[in-house]
Write a structure and sequence with these properties.
The protein is of the alpha/beta class. Helix content is 41%, strand content 11%. The protein contains 15 helices and 12 strands.
């Protein structure tokens, strides 16, 4: 595998790394870290502000802005330029650190029934043929053959250290599991429309599939522990859950002595695919299968884009180490404030359409932010702009949103 970085690429990367290191040395980063550490401990702070551009990064760091052409230099360059964009043009509460992360290369295989995605020319969209067409098809399911690419990962890490290791703290660091929610895999296997019908027509099949997926995810977590690929995610630049930083003194858990366990880190469960499923069926078909998984983690996050206002009473008491709860654009913010005050981080996700539309009404953006801060004034609030899959070519938008949110946070509403 050719992972060489030529001299011209090396020079580009090193200059970008020097600029990142300069930003990381600024005193404001220590203040930002303290903010998140207090925030996650539920100590009084102003609201925390975070931008997660996601798909919108393509408007901020464009392909044509990159000077490196080979792998891994091009991906390293993109990471560095994104860090600089955040420092210089977003200015949210995320600390800029001197860390440079290289993630594990992992082949996760399939469940014995491949689910090929057929993509269209539209950004991000695809369709697929769900492979479990009848209950009898469950006999085709097999445990995944998950392979950690130790050698390929080692080579990638070596290249990063050779190019940048005297400037930045190059580390092997990348969380291998985003969610233990399971319902996305269920939908891939069976199809979304069919799953909704199955809740009434084939409940036994749903239970069978969810039990299979639970056991597979449990085995996957065990494998990552055994292979040593679970990193601590309680640092000042660790994104956790569906938004928010994991900076915390409560992790790793007692007894940690080098090897990182699932109980030493933050984890996430969510069920966006069950957005239209009521609390009773959610409590029967989804949550019982998630609980043995999410309760393995040292601290837990729950929720993403799905509104949880009708499910708080089911979820909150069931996850003892729950700390961060998503308040999506479709969640009743007042109900969330009542249920979460004093006990959980109120992780508010503003409607990204307000910032992603062809024309932005910035007055409406500010009204939404200030209204939320008033509604949730008794809560430990974080405002996380995410799911921004485009800024319509306007790279000023994430920074403008961050400055409005920071001003409102400082003023208290």
């Amino acid at each position: 595998m050719n992972m060489q970085i030529d001299q011209d690429e090396r020079a580009v990367l090193r200059e970008l790394a020097r600029q990142v290191a300069e930003h990381a040395a600024r005193p404001i980063n220590a203040a930002r870290e303290r903010l998140w550490r207090d925030h996650n401990a539920l100590r009084p702070t102003r609201a925390a502000v975070l931008v997660s551009p996601e798909g919108g990064w393509r408007d901020c760091v464009r392909d044509e802005d990159l000077r490196c052409t080979g792998d891994p230099a091009r991906s390293f360059e993109r990471q560095l330029r994104q860090r600089l964009f955040r420092a210089e043009r977003i200015g949210d509460d995320m600390p800029i650190t001197a860390n440079f992360d290289v993630g594990w290369l992992i082949d996760r295989g399939d469940y014995g029934v491949p689910v090929p995605h057929v993509r269209t020319e539209d950004l991000g969209s695809y369709h697929w043929q769900a492979p479990i067409r009848t209950p009898a098809d469950t006999g085709k399911l097999r445990p995944r053959s998950i392979r950690v690419g130790h050698e390929a990962t080692r080579l990638r890490l070596e290249r990063a250290r050779e190019a940048l290791g005297d400037i930045l703290n190059v580390r092997l660091h990348g969380w291998p599991v985003w969610t233990v929610g399971l319902t996305w895999d269920l939908v891939l296997l069976r199809g979304l429309d069919q799953v909704m019908l199955d809740l009434y027509d084939e409940p036994g099949l749903v239970h069978e599939l969810m039990a299979f997926l639970r056991d597979e995810k449990d085995r996957e977590l065990d494998l990552y522990e055994r292979e040593g690929v679970v990193p601590l995610n309680n640092g000042p630049d660790d994104m956790v859950g569906s938004g928010g930083l994991g900076c915390s003194d409560e992790l790793p858990a007692a007894g940690h002595a080098g090897a990182v366990r699932i109980g030493d880190v933050w984890g996430l469960a969510e069920s966006q695919e069950f957005v239209g499923v009521g609390p009773e069926q959610f409590a029967e078909f989804a949550l019982p299968y998630q609980l043995p998984l999410i309760n393995r983690f040292g601290l837990a996050c729950y929720g993403c884009c799905e509104p949880l206002d009708r499910k708080f009473d089911v979820v909150l008491p069931a996850v003892p180490r729950l700390r961060r709860v998503s308040v999506s654009p479709w969640c009743d913010r007042a109900v969330a404030a009542e249920k979460l005050a004093g006990r959980y981080v109120y992780s508010w996700k503003p409607n990204p359409a307000l910032v992603c539309a062809p024309k932005v009404d910035w007055a409406a953006v500010e009204r939404s932010i200030r209204e939320t801060l008033r509604i949730a004034s008794a809560c430990r609030v974080e405002m996380v702009l995410k799911d921004t899959h485009t800024f319509c070519g306007d790279a000023t938008r994430p920074g403008r949103w961050a400055q409005i949110a920071l001003r409102a946070a400082e003023e208290g509403s």
